[in-house]
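Before the break, one more example. Copy the sequence into your notebook; we will annotate it together after we see the structure.
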Amino acid sequence: MDDPLAEANDAVAPLELVLAAARPYLAGLSDRKVHDGSADALLARLDGPLPERGEGAAGSVERLLDVATRAATHSSGPRFFHLVVGGSTPAAMAGDWTASLIDQVAGLWVASPLAAKVETIALRWLKDLFGIPASYGGVITPSATLAHVTGLACARTWWAARHGVDVAAQGLAGLPPMPVFSSGLVHPSTRKALQILGHGRDTLRTFSGDDTGRVDLVALESALAGLGGAPAIIVGNLGEVHTGDSDPLDAMADLAERYGSWLHVDGAFGMFAALSPRTAHYAAGVERADSITADGHKWLNVPYDCGFSFVRDPALQTRAFGAWGVSYLPEADADQTDYNTLGPESSRRARALPVWATLAAYGRAGHRAMVERHLDVAAHLGALVEQHPDLELMAPVRLCIVCFRYRPADVPEHLLDDLNARLGEALLADGRVYAGTSRYRGHTVFRPALLNWRTTPADATHLIKTLTTLTTLPPTNQTPP
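Here is what the structure looks like once it is written out:
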């Protein structure tokens, strides 16, 4: 096969192959392993030198589907708990397929009024869903990290202006280091955003009252007071990835107002706490933030990749990311929006379509029901852990994450980290449930995240049953340090 033009009259045929594969794949997600290591050998079928003459769309797509549906990590299924990610609701998946079908140039109004208008609607609905004031600006990004870049770039623009500098035009030269303060709950994506923006990931200072990472407000206020009136950036964290813990955002907002500072909130998955009366108190104060980050491919359950950035002063987005100033890219009129001037991306796909589709399909009530079901699943898993004689709950269950470890009575403390690490490796290798380990308060722990739209209490029970079938691992002959 040579020029793809030869397939123009039958361009839908490869899509029909995908649809045909989708039926058995989606129907079997709950029954297959999350990852089948034996299928990794199939990846070799996709390798080799670049072909001189291609096999045509049907041949390439058939081969890709045969390998992908078997060798993929089935993270869109109900038992992928290893990372804080959801899946794709039926409406979101169809919306994403629509985005690929129509393949919009989504950054400029002139290129796609459809994509721009749908993004505006989706952002308005999200602000309504989260309780963020309608006056805030916003933009859809590829991830929480790029949403942090957006919010913190706006913060930097504001901060530099306090020092009399237009940082977008003049850069950082001559400016002092930008003070960025947070608690020990801060996520590495915030540090990465600072790194991308040229401030350095290690310039962020944390103020923790104990080894859980919770903020020490007295120490934070002392640091702010020590700046002598100079502006700072405060990062509040809504939903920590090991325990779901959150900073007291209202108290942080008070400090930001008292000391003339900027409050940025990382609500990547915790922002969805606002949807339920049971957890809305964690989000109290977020409506006072200057910038807010959230993720779509976490608790909203839209396909990778999708994030959201909301900014109190929409003018700062344009100042931070700027108009193009070239004749072939005319500026949008007042009632139009060029979203590639409001965030870091210039070339953008229409990520708003799956967001709009899932919000339109299930509404506020449907998303609240999903969040509350996951709260129930997490509570169920926490109860199973507490009832099991060989398991130890390491933190209260607050949102959709359960932090625990394997702690049999006959294994001494100094061997538990190694035992749990090897148990996590065995669980991932087994593949029936995907939930590896991490480190929390100096211990190796499991921290399954239960926020896939398919996940039910039965999947949490399945995790414990699978884990306990693998606990015959003998402890290593380590000696105490």
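The chain has three domains: 4-74, 94-359, 361-469. Residues 352-387 form the longest helix (36 residues). Try to locate both features in your own notes.
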